[in-house]
Structures are given as C-alpha cells and as structure tokens.
Amino acid sequence: MNFLVVDHVSHTYFTEKAAVTALENVSLEIEKGEFVSFLGPSGCGKTTLLSIIAALIQPTKGSVILEGEKVHSIHPSVGYMLQQDYLFPWKTIEENILLGLTIMGMNSNEAKQRALDLLSRIGLKGVETYYPNQLSGGMRQRAALVRTLATDPKILLLDEPFSALDYQTKLKLEELVWKTLKEYKKTALLVTHDIGEAIAMSDRIFLFSAKPGRLVRTFIVPKELRNLSPFHSRNHTTFSELFQFIWKELDSLEANE
C-alpha cells in the first residue's frame, strides 16, 4: 500500500468576479520514507497542493489518502514547515519548540525531553532560554524544524523553507534537514523553485506545468546521487547532467505558458 496517495485532485479558487483553476487532475503516489520535490514555474499550484495534503484547504475534486485513510481535516501525522520560521517572538526557544506538543496534549516529560535532545543534536544546545530575535535566520529555521519534528509527524511538508536564507546557510540547512529526516526515517515533500535543491535532496521530482497546474513528468533521481548528502551530490558529474535536462524541460514549460 502506498503511504500517501493524491487521487485526481483539482482545485479552483472562486472570487466574486472570476474562477481560477490552480490544479487540474493531479494524481501521484509517495512511498514511506521517500523524499520528493514539487518543481515547476510560478503559479503551477505547488503550494496549493501542499495545503490540500495538509488539509488546510479541501480540493474542489479528488482526494488525499494517507496510510489508507482519506484526509478530511488537519492531522497530527502531518508536519508543516514554511519559508518563515513563525516563532513567537515573546516566547523562548524552548517554549516555541514545545508549543505543538502543548496544543496537541502530548507534552509528557518524555516528549519534552526528546524535543530538547533534538534541539541539542542539531547544534542549538544552550539556546533554550533565548528569544527568536537573539538567533540568526538559520538558527531560527533549525528551531522551527525541531518544533515540527517534536510531535513526531509521519510526513513533513516543506514549503520553500530555505529560500529566505543566504546561500551558505541554505546549503548547511539542506544538509542538516536531509540528514535529520533520513535518521528519523521520515517521509518528506518539498516545494521549491530551485532545481539544484530538488535534485540534491530528493528521491523523485514531480514537475508541474502552470495555469492550471498539471503533473507533466516525474524524474527519478539516480541512485548514485540519492546515496550522497545534498552537498556531496552537487559535486557529482551526474548532478550537472540531470540539472541541465530538468532545466530544459522547465524552460520549455515556461515558454509555452
């Protein structure tokens, strides 16, 4: 059985004056433990699809099935990490990373300790009493990752979580997130505009066309790249070959808009 199934999903946004179809008849399947990326031109519905998987919005047509059960509402099995960290500035880092546990009534001493241990393991030991404005952007995103993982979700939805960072911090955080999710055997879905990022982090890449968003092609990242960390993957000869191929496909889609 597939871990996550998107079954013929379409979505239209309605206003008083117009109806705009963001997604049209999208179907895909994701296996447990996979890291996949949604890639495509602006306006192809990548974030809309992520929001539908998270049950933040309901699709106009179709359904999302997680472990054999249709997703109707926001579910603790799904974690969501956004471009901005959205840490509460008036709360300490410890209070921020434990917030999800508190909201879900999962704040046992054992769960709290696991979250604090993870904070230490990703290089943030000693910042528990700090406030977000005392940390760099990369450190805040690491804290946001801990907050997301603290509730032990089965799948992580990553909506361009590195795009607001400088390039060096972005590469370091890609490496950290990839290693952390592999270690904890999490399934992850990344929305990105960055072809290199998609190749470096993913097992498969779903390429979308725009207006409306349709799934037009699936790329399987070669095994020799999947076995490498994102940083080392970028230095492999196969990386450049795949990058150029996807670039041409994406350029062709944008030219046909």
From TrEMBL:
The keyword Electron transport does not apply. Transmembrane segments: none annotated. Gene3D superfamilies: P-loop containing nucleotide triphosphate hydrolases (3.40.50.300). Residues 4-235 form the ABC transporter domain. Keywords: ATP-binding, Nucleotide-binding, Transport. It comes from the Bacteria. PANTHER family: ABC TRANSPORTER ATP-BINDING PROTEIN (PTHR42788:SF21), TAURINE IMPORT ATP-BINDING PROTEIN-RELATED (PTHR42788). This is NitT/TauT family transport system ATP-binding protein.
